[in-house]
Amino acid sequence: MFSLSDTLELPHYAIIFSSQRSEDDRSAYGVMASQMFDLAAE
C-alpha cells in the first residue's frame, strides 16, 4: 500500500490557521494572507 509519509523526508511540518472575515477587514485580510504565505515558504 502506498503511503505519502513514506515518500517524504522527516521531519514533517503542518501550518494551519483559521480566520473569520468581516466587511470592515477586506484590505487587512489580503495583507495578512500574503504574510502567512511568505512565512509558510520559509
Strand residue percentage: under 5%
Q: Tell me the overall shape.
A: elongated
What's the number of domains? Answer: 1
- E-strand count: 0
The assigned structural class equals: mainly alpha
Succession of helices and strands: HH
Radius of gyration: 16 Å
**Termini distance?**
32 Å
Low-confidence stretches: none
Question: Could you give a short account of the major beta sheet?
Answer: none
If you average the pLDDT, what whole number results? 78
Fraction of residues in H or I helices: 40-55%
How many helices does DSSP assign?
2
Describe this structure as you would to a colleague:
The protein is mostly helical and 42 residues long. The chain has one domain (4-41). It has helices spanning 4-7, 26-41. It is elongated, with a radius of gyration of 16 Å. The chain starts with a helix and ends with a helix. The mean pLDDT is 78.
Structure summarized in a few sentences:
The chain is mainly alpha-helical.
Which SSEs are present, and which pair or pack?
Blueprint: H1 4-7, H2 26-41
Supply database-style keywords.
single chain; 42 residues; mainly alpha; 48% helix; 0% strand; elongated
